[in-house]
Design brief:
six-stranded mixed β-sheet, binds magnesium ion, three-stranded mixed β-sheet, binds potassium ion, GMP Synthetase, Chain A, domain 3, 288 residues, 2 domains, binds guanosine-5'-diphosphate, Rossmann fold, alpha/beta, single chain
Length: 288
Amino acid sequence: MHKAGFVNIFGKANAGKSTLMNVLIGEKLAIVSPKVQTTRHRITGIVTTDDYQIVFSDTPGIIDPRYRLHEKMMGAVKSALEDADVAMLMMDVRDNVAENLALFDSLKLKAKCLLVINKMDVMEKEKLEEVVKQCEEWGKAPVITISALQNKGVDALLKRIVELLPESDPFYPEDTLTDKSTRFFVAEMIREKIFHLYEEEIPYHTAVVVTQYQEKTTLTKISAEIIVTRDTQKGIILGDKGSGIRKLGTMAREDIEKFIGQKVFLELFVKVRGKWRDNDLYLKEYGY
Ligand code: GDP
Ligand code: K
Ligand code: MG
């Protein structure tokens, strides 16, 4: 009997959804940062064994939309809510339990659910047990504690997921890792470095588009545009005598080389496009 299904991760910002997704698929596909709203798309990662195929989806953290961009992000959540066979409802162990449970209730999920309490590594045992008890009283999903960062409890979680998977043939050929393109992940890796290197509004006002992707025999030549909303932000991205963008370029290039397994020549350009986050044409052009 072969099993297959869609297993989608939901939760508030910074619960550790993208970190968990990467651990589950054993590959760094989803970008991670300590800042909220890092993930903007639904990102698929596929795990195939002889017995099952799981199509995992990482989703943006659930927020109240303030820009068209946010609406698009919540659209990605909605599509994942609709096709989930199994929903992993994820929360940071330190976060307010009642608030998270209310959020999970509001999703009105028909899928089978697992309540995943993440970051158990940051809490002592007695306090953790209290949180687990509070979650179990909710009664709507089995409660599982993990540390995605330290890969603790993830095997047990995977076992529970497989138990809940429906009987089905695989959806994708067995060697498929994701449904997104390499260009998409290249843009994401650049965006991740922006989240790590720049503070305040900069990461939230930024989009990245890959404009050139040329595979040659010994190296891949990539050009990308970094889109910001103001001239001052462009100046900050570039940094003193270009030192900012050089650092960004080096860090991103190293990650891209690891990802595609080839030397990369990376060129970055910064463009100003006021209000791109509220402009449907720009949003489309930038992949949202
Ligand atoms: P997302 O917004 O839900 O996708 O969360 P991320 O995966 O981007 O993680 C947010 C932050 O939490 C990052 O700084 C992660 O390194 C951190 N994080 C994720 N999982 C764990 C964990 O199990 N323990 C600890 N201590 N930190 C974690
Ligand atoms: K994050
Ligand atoms: Mg994320």
